[in-house]
Amino acid sequence: MKLYRLIIPPQGDGERADRLIARYFPELPERSIRAAFLRRDVKLEGRRITRGQRVCTGQELRIYLQNEEE
Fold first, then answer.
1. Exposure pattern of 27-51 as b/e (b: 16+ CB <10 Å)?
2. pTM value?
3. What is the spatial distance between Cα 46 and Cα 28, in angstroms, rounded to a whole number?
4. Residues linked to residue 33 through DSSP beta bridges, in sequence order
């Protein structure tokens, strides 16, 4: 399992989590991002979130991806 970590910058304030991940991690395929949300492997401040969750500046976002999805 691989971990991607992002501290939300001011430009990402109020943005949806799925869109923010796609913008800041362009190397990740959309299908991998969707799969991580379906498995509930995306966390904001240590809590599992949904794709449409809005994020705030300074929060920590973590995405865990299975090795075969890299």
1. ebeeebbeebbeeebbbbeeeebee
2. 0.87
3. 21
4. none
